[in-house]
Amino acid sequence: MANDYPTEARVDYVLGCMASNGNSYLTMQKCSCSIDVIAEHLSFEEYEQVETVLSMQDQRGELGVLFRTERGMQDQLRALRQAQADANLRCF
């Protein structure tokens, strides 16, 4: 369901993407395309889970190790990276 992403999540992604790739109208179009492609691959629930894993990987100690090494979480990260690679090919 590509349409289950709330507008706020899409805007947040586009703003972060633009900050990384340049703040131009063309970049905004490419970043908007990118989140649409990611939404084709991952439900919003899956996307939120991966975003949580990414943010928790920086934690120190046992908790951080869990988020960096647990197989299920690594599979989620791999799915996001594959979606991002597809988005890069199709949008950039």
Structure notes:
With 92 residues, the chain is mainly α. It contains five helices and no strands. Helix 2 packs across helix 5. The protein is globular, with a radius of gyration of 14 Å. It starts with 6 loop residues before the first helix and ends with a helix.
List the helices and strands and how they pair.
Elements: H1 7-21, H2 25-41, H3 44-56, H4 61-69, H5 71-91
Helix pairs in contact: 1-2, 2-5, 3-5
Average pLDDT works out at 89
Number of helices: 5
Helix share, percent: over 70%
Report the β-strand fraction as a percent range. Answer: under 5%
Largest sheet: none
Give the low-confidence spans.
none
Shape: globular
Give a count of the beta strands, DSSP E runs of length 2 or more: 0
What is the chain-wise order of helices and strands?
HHHHH
Computed structural class: mainly alpha
Give the end-to-end Cα distance, rounded to a whole number of Å.
23 Å
